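Recap from last week: sequence in, structure out.
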Amino acid sequence: MKTGLQDVPTWQEWTADEAAAGKTVGVDPTLISSSIADKLEESIKKNGGKGLEAVTENLVDIVWGSERPPRPSQPVVLLPEKFAGKDTATKLIDLRKDLEKKKSIGFVVSLLDEIAWLFNLRGSDIPYNPVFFSYAIVTPETATLYIDCSKLSPECQNYLAQNKVDVKPYDHLFVDTKALASQAEENSTESPVRKKYTISTKASWALKLALGGEKFVEEIRSPIGDVKAVKNETELTGMRNCHIRDGAALSQFFAWLEDQLINQNTVLDEVAAADKLEEFRSKHENFVGLSFDTISSTGPK
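Predicted structure tokens:
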């Protein structure tokens, strides 16, 4: 079945249909957002199913066993303030002001682009994306980055320490969130006003469950995403300059291509042309890599 074709159900519709007659659907909660889980459970029950169950051990991972390839672990680099325009300490102050307005006792950051922006770090764990596998928790008093520590250079570690950011192993996130949930449970018996942890509406169901579920978690539009979308003057200047550099690289490429095809009568394929374009781009200042593979074609349809 191909999603999007006429008369082809979405995977949620198919799942709900299969769960009819009182069946329970199991799902790895780390691979589905909390909002999607809520809607899916509603559809399952509406179709006569029993409900949705979080499966703590992914069955595919069990079958994969020792043959599962390791998680990408590329080096993380510091984005200098001359490009970011604002240090992490200032960004944390702004975030905490927003959390105070929402009466949040802590925000768990799970979106990788938001973590990269908040801590002025960049990585390459995912091709063509300047992000790295990580989580973060920001409270009124603390900020913790959960990441494979071996990925951080001494420069990154010093920067995080200067901005009062603790670093913990990536796999400790769910251990700590469960501890926070227990602490929230204790505090709720002592105070009539129950404060909650906040997570993005795009965060995983597993994260919400680990923090204690609906009782102790509020899903919100990420305050980091909103602030990140409003570029400061340094970021605006950087964006304008990178477009100028890329425009120059494209102009060089078009001149080269015209010479090769018309004057040199060279036979080129799409790969050779794309490689040449990357070569021109790579010679310009501040080049790091492509944002996606060049999409090009030539010849008959």
